[in-house]
Amino acid sequence: MSVRILALVGSLRAGSHNRQLAETAVKLAPAGAEVALYEGLAEIPFYNEDIDVEGGVPAAAAKLREAAAGADALLLFTPEYNGTIPAVLKNAIDWLSRPFGAGAIGGKPVVVVGTAFGQYGGVWAQDEARKAVGIAGGKVVEDIKLSIPGSVTRFAETHPADDSEVTEQLTEVVNRLHALVDAEQTAA
């Protein structure tokens, strides 16, 4: 049985270093695992209970929920915007948290990683994302972390996939998440 990991990126910018990290994770997936990069977070309207009704859920939000429901785990890549999580990622978490008590990420392992310009690599945003995901029902994996500082200078002329330290660390993240989910599936 293959482990399906859904990757969500909190930056919409085409040249985003977090997107590049996610694309690299797709390539680094070990045998028996698939990392799927989700496209379409920009099309999802801001969460509003008035439009989250049976038969009326916006198609973009329903597509996200379906993708998350079909995944065994999630891997979130977040930059840090003004010391916190980007709105697009928070919005995705909000949609995935509903319906209350039965959201698409309920009980699923979730790992949060990322890169940011600051000296701590976006740890504030990552901590906020973990908090939101945990409250939303996801099973936050606290011991798998990766914060890469200095993204603007570190990746100015180098793609994350060409940085051996980054690929080694990201490979470990993906392998550990895969092993965790695989062990859970075997035990079930």
Walk me through this protein's architecture.
- The protein is α/β, with parallel strands linked by helices.
- 39% of the residues lie in helices and 15% in strands.
- It has 6 helices and 6 strands, in the order βαβαβαβαββαα.
- The protein has helices spanning 17-28, 59-69, 87-96, 123-135, 151-154, 164-187, and strands spanning 3-9, 33-37, 73-77, 109-115, 139-140, 146-148.
- Strands 1, 2, 3, 4, 5 and 6 form a 6-stranded parallel beta sheet that branches.
- Helix 1 (17-28) packs across helix 6 (164-187).
- It is globular, with a radius of gyration of 16 Å.
SSE order and pairing:
Layout: E1 3-9, H1 17-28, E2 33-37, H2 59-69, E3 73-77, H3 87-96, E4 109-115, H4 123-135, E5 139-140, E6 146-148, H5 151-154, H6 164-187
Helix pairs in contact: 1-6
Radius of gyration over all CA atoms, rounded: 16 Å
What is the terminal separation in angstroms?
13 Å
Give helix % range.
Answer: 25-40%
N to C succession of SSEs: EHEHEHEHEEHH
Overall outline: globular
What's the average pLDDT?
Answer: 96
The chain-level structural class is alpha/beta
Counted beta strands: 6
Sheet-strand content, in percent, reads 15-25%
